[in-house]
Write a structure and sequence with these properties.
The chain folds into two domains: 354 residues, no CATH class; 195 residues, SGNH hydrolase (Rossmann fold, 3-Layer(aba) Sandwich). Helix content is 58%, strand content 7%. Helix 5 crosses helix 6, helix 11 runs antiparallel to helix 12 and helix 19 crosses helix 25.
Length: 619
């Protein structure tokens, strides 16, 4: 089962476009709950359970491979990563060292979260949840055991609450549901129930072993095929891997599928090294994606997976096995904990000191184009402006999403939309310092019918000082092909309402979305690994122009022949007839694949300000 789980995870991570592999971690949760609970129950039966012995076993099982991978990542990152990337790595290693990676990733998740593929320690979220579970689980079992309480009743109550929380959370905070331990604990408890039943009431769970394992295998197969990142997960979908794994484990070793299919030597060997393999494979794939700042080829992904098998076997043979089964249990545990603490301190220090920027002087890595990447510098610039009025609008806007450029006057121009409105606001505000520009930004489509935008649209309509309204969004992402008629009607009515209130409306068209990250354009060198063109800053404009034309035509059809509406094409600032460019004359314009950085916003803002026909005294 471990072999199937890790192979699914490897396949999904190496080839994310594939439709299988997403549920591997959930299989691991059930297996872990079963194995660890079996050990605890067995020791309780013999009256030999010891907390110190339990945690020493966990330390010797988990830390050797974890420390090895973390240390290797820090060393490699020293030579290969930029300051921003190394700072992020340090933060996540610090979080991994104290097993709070899931909470850290939860706090980072959201509209502007950096791509998950560029976080080498991302996969430690599942390990963190397991260790958080094993903080309270042995204590709960001992209390229930010693007080002669009904174990199944206690687990059922906690498990049902955990599952109910998962269902609730996935509808209100999908990231929270994915990373929260409280929405995942029931998966480990499912394995614990099987362990309890196997020890005390085996006749209840092994009535039809062949049928159980067959149904379980089919449920897993359905989960591998039909569950991917497109579904809200975990939610109800997670029942497929949890029930499937539980049925297969409960069937026992006599079931035909378990005995002949799941017990073959290859799967057993893969299961043996599954833990270090889980740790290594994602680190290798993530570092490659960081270094390439691009999508990995099929061959490069396959090479990373092959190397991860080799490293996993070496880690298991030379490090994990000796530490886990050596004689000096206590001293080994103390040494391992000391190493982990040192790594945590090192990671935190790297994070606190902005990734040790002095490393940038290394000849293997230098800046080819100047400009900020990521979102921190851009958001710091936004903080120099003022929270927008009226104050009640601030409650409905995202962070840094409800601002005005001047504090002492009413707004003159309103920019409304998603982050593609926000990233032109900064440059426009700098280009028109005597004009008060209002920004309202939300993760949604800028229209009257939207619950996110209704109040601000009404405010803008009834604010006489606002004479011009700029609508901007990532139109390609926002306009759904299945809802074109609804879009044309709602967006058209929005524009009519604005122009009826004597507002001139400007619609900013899409700008290029690049397939590679801006680090590939900003930096040169990367250890000379030949992982792709260095300083790649351009790509063909043909696809972008085709897509832009399609969505611009939809926008124009929606607004009709309204003379108070003008379209602003800023793509010409970045594209010519052949290529779209992320940088010009040594200046980088993007902070991720589709958002302008400070340079890009100022560059675009100057062009937009000329088209708005504003009499700005300080312009």
């Amino acid at each position: 089962m471990r072999g199937i789980a890790i192979l699914g995870v490897l396949w999904y991570h190496a080839y994310p476009g594939a439709l299988i592999g997403f549920i591997g971690v959930d299989i691991f949760f059930v297996i872990s709950g079963f194995l660890i609970s079996s050990i605890i129950f067995s020791n309780l039966e013999k009256n030999t359970f010891s907390f110190s012995e339990f945690y020493i076993r966990r330390i010797r099982r988990i830390l050797p491979a974890l420390i090895t991978v973390m240390l290797a990542s820090l060393i490699f990152g020293w030579f290969a990563l930029t300051a921003e990337e190394y700072q992020s790595l340090g933060q996540h290693i610090a979080g991994g060292a104290v097993f709070v990676s899931n909470f850290l990733l939860w706090s980072e998740s959201g509209y502007f979260d950096d791509a998950a593929a560029t976080k080498p320690m991302l996969h430690l979220w599942s390990l963190a949840i397991e260790e958080q579970f094993y903080i309270f689980w042995p204590l709960l079992m001992i209390i229930v055991w010693r007080n002669h309480k009904n174990f199944l009743k206690a687990v059922a109550i906690i498990g049902i609450l955990s599952f109910a929380f998962s269902i609730y959370q996935v509808a209100h905070d999908p990231s929270g549901s994915f990373y929260s331990p409280f929405s995942r604990f029931w998966e480990l408890m499912a394995g614990s129930v099987i362990a309890y039943m196997a020890l005390h009431k085996p006749e209840f769970i092994r009535c039809f072993p062949n049928l159980q394992s067959t149904v379980g295998f089919l449920l897993l197969l359905a989960g591998f095929i039909f569950i991917d990142r497109g579904q809200t997960f975990p939610g109800w979908w997670v029942l497929l891997p949890v029930l499937g794994t539980s049925l297969i484990i409960s069937a026992g070793h006599t079931a035909w599928i378990n005995r002949y299919l799941l017990s073959n030597r290859f799967l057993l060997w893969v299961g043996l090294i599954s833990y270090p393999l889980y740790l290594w494979h994602w680190v290798l794939l993530s570092f490659l994606k960081i270094l390439k700042s691009d999508i990995l080829t099929v061959k490069l992904s396959a090479l990373a997976v092959a190397i991860s098998f080799i490293l996993a076997w070496l880690t298991y043979k030379l490090i994990e096995h000796p530490c886990r089964f050596g004689k000096h249990k206590l001293s080994t545990s103390v040494i391992l904990l000391s190493f982990l603490a040192a790594l945590g301190i090192a990671g935190h220090t790297i994070y606190q000191h902005q990734g040790l920027q002095s490393r940038q002087s290394a000849p293997s890595l230098h800046e080819a184009n100047h400009g900020d990447i990521g979102h921190a510098a851009f958001f710091r610039q936004l903080q120099t402006y003022y929270p927008c009025l009226p104050a009640e609008l601030q409650k409905t806007a995202m962070k840094h999403g409800c601002l005005q450029s001047r504090k002492d006057t009413g707004p003159d121009i309103a920019i409304i939309g998603d982050s593609h409105a926000q990233h032109v606001y900064l440059g426009l505000a700098k280009s028109l310092p005597a004009t008060n520009i209002l920004l309202f930004m939300q993760d949604g489509f800028p229209e009257l019918d939207s619950k996110h935008f209704h109040d601000v649209m009404q405010t803008v309509i009834h604010t006489e000082s606002i004479t011009k309204v700029v609508l901007a969004a990532y139109w390609k992402f926002r306009i759904r092909p299945t809802q074109l008629e609804q879009f044309k009607q709602s967006f058209g009515e929005t524009v009519k309402a604005l122009t009826a209130a004597n507002k001139a409306v400007y619609i900013i068209e899409d700008l290029p979305h690049f397939s590679f990250r801006p680090a590939k354009c900003k930096y040169a060198g990367r250890l000379g690994l030949g992982l792709g063109p260095v300083n790649k800053c351009s790509e063909s404009s043909a696809y972008f122009y085709r897509e832009k034309k399609k969505f611009t035509q939809l926008l124009k059809k929606a607004v009709g022949d309204n003379r108070m509406v003008k379209f602003i094409d800023i793509s010409r600032l970045f594209c010519d007839t052949e290529q779209c460019h992320m940088a010009k004359n040594g200046e980088l314009f993007y902070r991720d694949t589709n958002h302008l950085n400070i340079n890009g916003s100022i560059y675009a803002g100057k062009a937009i300000s000329r088209l708005l026909d504003i009499n700005d005294a300080k312009r």
